[in-house]
Queue: 4 jobs
Job 1
Amino acid sequence: MKKVVIYYFSGTGNTWWLAEELKKLLIIKNTTAVAYSIEGVTAEQVPQQLKNADHIVIGFPVYGSTAPKLMQEFIKELPMASNHQTATVFGTQALASGDTAYFIGRRLAEKGYKLMQTLHFRMMNNLHLPMFRFYPPKNDHRTIALHRKCLPKLDKLATAISKDQRQIRGKYTLGIILGKLQRSHMDAMIEKVSKHFDVSTEACVHCNKCIRICPTQNIMAVNGTYAFGANCNACLRCYSQCPQNAILIGAASADAEKYPRYRGPQEDFNPFKLIKP
Ligand SMILES: Cc1cc2nc3c(=O)[nH]c(=O)nc-3n(C[C@H](O)[C@H](O)[C@H](O)COP(=O)(O)O)c2cc1C
C-alpha cells in the first residue's frame, strides 16, 4: 500500500482543513496517509516519518506567490529523497497564486523528490488590513461554499497521487513572471505588516491566547501589555483568533466591522490543533 506523508503549515485554518480532507480521501483510495502540522513535529521526527514513505505532500497558504517563511525553512531542512520518493505541493489562496506551488515544488525537486503534482485551491481570504485591503473575509456559508468547490479538485488530486498521475499547475510564462514580481515584494510586505502589530489595552482581557498560538513564539507579555518580536510570519493567527479583537494591525483595525477577522474554515475551528501538544 502506498504510504503518503502530508506536512502543512496553516496560519488561520484553511490549509489545515484541506490537508485533513486530502488525508481522508487518500485513505478512501487505499493509501496509508498521515498529516502533520509542521509546528507539531520536531526536526528529529521528520526523517523517521519519511523513512518508508513513497510520497510527500507539502501544503501552505500562498503569501505573495511564495510559502510562509516557516514552511520554506522546513523544506530546507527536509532530508534528501530516497528510493524514488515523489511529491505534491499545494497552496491555498484567496484570489491569485501564479506559479507558487510549482516554484516551491522545484525546491523539493532539488532535494531529489520527483515532482508529480502542483496545484492551488481557492479558499476564504484571511488578509484584509488597513494597509492591504483584499476583500473582507466572510465567516458564514460563503466559506463552506468555497470548501464545496474545492472537494472535486481535491478528489482528483487524491486519485492522481494514488495512481501516480502527473498534474502540474502554475508552470506557465505569465504565472512565472507574476510570481517573480510578487515574491520580490514579499519580505518587505511582511516586515511592513509586522511593524504595525499592537494590542488595544481597552479590549484585551490578558487571556494570553495570542502568546500560546503564535507559531514563531513572537509575542511576549511585558509590563501588563504585549510586545511583538522580529520573527513574525504575518500568518495573522493571533489577529484572527483573539476573542476580543484586541490585536490590531494598524489603528483602523480596531473597527472590527470594517476589518472583520477570519475565524477559520469551520465554526469549531481550534487553532490549538496546529501547535505542539
Ligand atoms: C501575508 C499574507 C499574504 C497573502 N498573499 C496572498 C496572495 O498573494 N494571493 C492570494 O490569493 N491570497 C493571499 N493571502 C490569503 C491566504 O493565502 C489565504 O486566505 C489562505 O487560504 C490562508 O490559509 P491559512 O488559513 O491556512 O493560513 C495572503 C494572506 C496573508 C496572511
Job 2
Amino acid sequence: MKFLLIGQGLAGTLMGFRLERAGHQVEYVDAPEQTAASAVAAGIINPITGRRFVKSWRIDELIPAARLLYTELEDFLGVSLWHPQPLIRTLYNRGDLNDWQARSADPGYSEYMEDEPATGRLPELTQPVFAYAGVRHAARVDVATMVAAFREKLIAEGRLTSGVFAYDQVPALLGADAGARNGNPAYDHIICCEGWRARFNPWFADLPHGGNKGEVLIVKTQAPLLNLMFKHRVFLVPLSDDTYWVGATSENQFSHEEPTAKNRTFLADRLAEVLTGTTYEIIDHRAAVRPTVKDRRMFLGTHPDWPQLHLFNGLGTKGASLAPCGSQWLADYLLAGKPLPEEVDIRRFNQPLR
Ligand SMILES: Cc1cc2nc3c(=O)[nH]c(=O)nc-3n(C[C@H](O)[C@H](O)[C@H](O)COP(=O)(O)OP(=O)(O)OC[C@H]3O[C@@H](n4cnc5c(N)ncnc54)[C@H](O)[C@@H]3O)c2cc1C
C-alpha cells in the first residue's frame, strides 16, 4: 500500500519506518522551517516521574519496545541513538526521602528505584543536597539526530516534499469525492503526524488538542563533567563530552513559539543554583511546543467519515518512550486490523468505543 505522512518529527519518523519495514511505500510532507518538539527534546526516558514518584504509564512495556526500535534505527541509519544513562534525582528533604522509600516498597517499583545510587563526580560539581536517589532503566534517545538522519535519507530518495501541507487536498489524494472512492487515489492512506500543529488540521479539529511550550538551554563546559542525567529542579543531561541540555520550562499559555528572555533567565538561574563546581557557557537557547492532550494519552485512530485518514499525535512530554509502542499499535491496527488500546483511541472523545 502507499502511505502519505504529514509531518516528519518523532511520530512521523517511527510510523514511516514501521510501514516501510512491513513492505509499504511511504512518502512525506514536512515543513522543516517550523519549530518541531523533536528538534528540542532531550529524549529522556524516565520510568519514575513527578513529586510523588509515580511509575510512568505502561513503562514496563514501553522501555523494551523503545530499546528494540531505536537500536534497529541505529543500524538502519548508522547513527548512535539509544543511550542508557543513570538518572539521579535530588530528594530535597526528609519528607521526600520517606516518600521515596515508601514508594519503592510498592509492587513493581523496586526494579526502577535505587536508594543509594553511584553519583560519580556529582557531589563535587553541584551544591550539597539532602539526599540523592537513583532511577534505574532510564535512557536518553537522540531524537533530533534520528529525525535529521531519517530526513536526509528521505530527501536522497526523493520521498519528502518540503512545505506546509494544504488540508483541502485530502479528498483528491485519497481518490475520493464526498467520502466515496471513485478514481485513482494517489495514496491508500494518509497519516497526520503534525505534533502540536494538529490543532490547525480541520479534519481532526474536534479533538481537544493542547500545546505546552518548553524552553531549554544548551551549555558547554571546559571539560566533560557527568555521564549521568541529573534532576534538581531542572534536568541536566549530557549530550556529548562537554555539552549539556538544561531544561525545561513548561507553559500552557503562550503567544509565540520563540525563546524568551524571561525563560532564559529562569533556566540560567536554576542552573547557577545547582551547578556550582565548574564554569560553563550558554551556547544555545531553544523553544518548541509539546503536543499535549488533556487526559495525557496519545491520539491514535481514524477519521469517523474518512476510513483512509488517520492520526498519530498527542505524544506530550514523553514522546521518546511513547512513540515506539504508539507506532506499533497504529501499524497493527492499520495493517492487521488489531484494535487500538482504548486509552489511546481517539474515539474516546467523540464516540462510544465498540
Ligand atoms: C522543551 C522540550 C523538551 C522535551 N523533552 C522531552 C524528553 O526529554 N523526553 C521525551 O520523551 N519527550 C520530550 N519532549 C516531548 C517530545 O519532544 C514530543 O513528544 C515529540 O517530539 C513530539 O513529536 P511529534 O512528531 O508528534 O511532533 P514534532 O516533533 O513537533 O513534529 C511535527 C512535524 O510536523 C510538521 N508539520 C506540522 N504541520 C504540518 C503541515 N501542515 N504540513 C507539513 N508539515 C507539518 C512540523 O514542521 C514538524 O516537523 C520535549 C518537548 C519539548 C518541547
Job 3
Amino acid sequence: MKKDLKKQMKEWRRHFHQNPETAFEEVKTAAFVADYLRGLGLDVHTGIGKTGVVANLKVGDGERVVGLRADMDAINMQETTGLPYASTVPNKMHACGHDGHTATLMGAATLLAEEKGFNGTVRFLFQPAEEPGKGAQAMVDDGLFERFPMDEIYGIHNASEIPEGTFHTRVGGIMASEDNFTIRIKGRGSHASAPHLSIDPLVTAAEIIMALQTIVSRNVSPIDQAVVSCTELYMDGVHNAIPSNVEILGDTRSNKEEIQALIEQRMQAICENICSANNADLDFLYTHEFAPTINWAEGVEKAVAVAKKVVGEENVNSNCDPWMGSEDFGIFLKHVPGCFLFLGAGKSEERSENTPLHNSKYDFNDDILMTGATFFRELIRHTLPQ
Ligand SMILES: [Zn+2]
Ligand SMILES: [Zn+2]
C-alpha cells in the first residue's frame, strides 16, 4: 500500500504543478482535494475562507482535536523548468512547493484514514491564498475555530536550503512578520536653480531613508531580529526641477509582535518629525501583511520528538535560526498552540546548488512526500494516543 501511496502522491503533486491556481482561485485544486477526501470517508467542508477545505477524521471517543494544515496556492510567475508536467497556465506556477504540501497532506489523510491508530479528531486544513498572507485570516473570519475547534495545529513547509529529509524548527519566532509602508512627502516644487523657493521633498526623503536605518541599529535590541528596507522611491521632478511629491515604499520584518509595533511607532515618529523640521506634509501608511509565526514550546516539543522518530535524531534541528521570510501559518498559531517546521528538500548538501523557492525553475522534491506524510501520521498518533 505504502509504495502505491508514494506513487499516488507524486501523481497528485505533478497534477497540481501542471494546473496551478493562485490566491482565492484554488477552485479546481480544492475540488480535487475535497472529492478525494470524501472518497476516503472524511467529513469534508468546502468554501471556508472562499476556497479553503476542512476535512475531519474522527476515530474512537477521544475528545482532543488536532489540526494539520497545507496551503494550496501557486504564485504569479512564468515557469521556466521545461518539465513535462510544467505549468500549463501562463504566468502562474507552483514555485513555493504548495503543490507538494497539498499532496503530502492528502497522503497523510490516506494513511490515517486507512491505518487509524489514534483516538480523537484530526482536522485536515487546506488553506487558500498563503502567498499574499490573506488565506489563513479568511478562514478564521469564516468561523474556522468556532465551527471546527482545535486544541493544537501543525504545519510544514518544504525548504530547499536545507538537506532533503531533515526537519528544522525552533521555539518562538520562526518566521517573521511582514509589514509594508508608503511614506508620501508633499513639498513645493521649484526650478532646480532656485531651491530657496521650494520645500524640497527629495532632501526630506533622503533624511528619512537614512534615519529609518537607526530603528534596527538603535531601537531594536541586538538580541532580536528586525529588518527595515526602503525598496522604491518615486517623485514627480525632472532633471531641472525640484519635485513637489516623493513617495518612499518599503517592507519591514520582525519576529515578535512587540518589535513589529515598535518599528511602526518609531517609523511614524521619525517621518513626522523630519517632515515637520522641513516644512513638508506627510501621509504615512503602514499595513500589516503577515503576522509573525511564533511556535509554542509545547508544540515544538511534540513535533521534535516525532520528527526524531521519523528521520532520526541527527536529522532534526530543534533550535534552527529564525527565517526572515513570512508565512500565513502565524495566524493559526495566534489562536491555538502548535508548531511550524521546515522539511528539507535540498537535493545537494551545498545550499547554493539547490534551486531556491520562488525561482521560476522551482520544482518540489517528490522524494520528501512520504517523509512529510509519515511525519503527520506519527504526529497524530503522538498527540492523540489510543
Ligand atoms: Zn510557501
Ligand atoms: Zn511562497
Job 4
Amino acid sequence: MEIKFLGGAGEVGRSGILVRDEKNILLDYGVKIDEGEEYPIDAGDIDACVISHAHLDHSGYAPHVYSKGMPEMFATDPTIKLSELLIEDSIKIHKKKHMHPHFHREQLKTMLNRYTPCDYGERYPLGRFDISMYDAGHICGSAVTLVEKQNNGRRLVYTGDFKIEQQLLEGGAEIVKSDILILESTYAAGEHPDREEQMKRLAEEVRETVDNGGVALVPVFAVGRSQEMLALMNRYGLIDRTYIDGMAKAATEIVEQYPDYVKNRELLDGGIRKAQWISNPRNRDYALEGGSVVLTTSGMLNGGPVLDYITRLNRNSKIFITGYQVDGTNGKRLLEGKPLNIDGREYRVRHPVSMYDFSAHAGKSDLHRYVKESSPETVICVHGSAENTALLAGDLRMEGFDARAPSVGEVIELGSL
Ligand SMILES: [Zn+2]
Ligand SMILES: [Zn+2]
C-alpha cells in the first residue's frame, strides 16, 4: 500500500489523501481559500472518494473527480447536503468573479447521485475493504473514517478534523483503534481555553453591547459556528434580540433536518424558532437600529452580508470574532488593525473587536490522547502548518510511534494493509 498526499500536508486547506492498495481510495478533496484558491494534485483513477465533512477545505474539489471517472462516494447524509450548499455557493462566486471553473454543476450532480449515505458505526463494503464512519465531534455530520481490510482486520483510520471535548451542539469524537492513523494537527502547538468560560464571557460582552443600544456583530461560518451561536444566544437569554442572515440561514435549515446529529437539539430548535430571520436586505435596517445581535456569513469577512453590516454599524456597536481567521482574509486584517478590502476599496473599521476561541479542533493534549487510545504503529500528521506537523510527529516519535509529517506530493510506502 502507498499513500500519496495530494494536498493538506504541511498546510491547512485543499485536503486530499490518496490510499493506493487493491482499491484506490481518495480521502477528502478540498480547496484552499485565502487570497485566491489552490487545488490539490490530480487524483488519477480512483475507485472511491470519502468526504470527512462539509467544510470546503475537505469537500470543495470533490466534484472534480467526476470529470474523468465514476468513483463511488461515501459520506454521512448531513455532510453531503451541507457540502452541496457550500459547493453551489463556490460555483456562484467563481462565476461572479469570472474565475476559471474546475468543474461544473453537472459534476456536482453526478457526485450527489453516486454517493452512499453512511450512518455512524455501519460497514460499507468496497471490494475487499469495509468503509465505516464514526462521529468526529467537529461539525454536524463530521466523521472519522475507518478503512478495514476484510481478510486480516488491518485498519487505516483518517481522523479528518475532530474534537474530543464536547461543544454546545457536538458530543465529541469517537476514538477508533488503528494500525495506521492519519491525524489532523491544526493545534499541535497549543491548548484551547476553557470553553464554558469563553461562552460565558462572550454572552456577557454581547449583553453589554446590546444593552448599550449597539449591534453585536458576530461573523460566523455557515456550517457549524452559525448553529452553535444560535444555540448559545438561546442558552443565555439573548435570542429574542438575535437576527440571522446570509448563508448561515440555509445551513441552519439543513442541520435542522438532522436532529440525530445534534447534541442539545432543544437549544438549537429554540434558537431557530425565536431568532429573527432576515429574508431580504431591506430588513437589515431593523437589525441595524441597535440593541441587537447579528449572526451572519461569511465567517472570515471575505463576502456575504457581514460586509454590508460592518459598514453601517452605529457607534455603540462591537464586532465579535469567534472563528479562526486565515492569513490574507478580511477577518485577519481586522484582527491586525488593517483596513478591509470591500469590493476593491479600502475600508477602515473604527469599532472595537473582541476575539474568542471556539475552535472545533482538538488541542495538543487531545491530539496525543487520540493517538495513544487509537494505538497505531504508524501515525501520519497532516492538516497543520509544516512547523506543527513536524512538531507533533517529533513528539510522537519520542513516545515510540513511527510518526511522519509528509509534505504535498510525497508518497509514503507502507506494505500491504
Ligand atoms: Zn473542518
Ligand atoms: Zn479542515
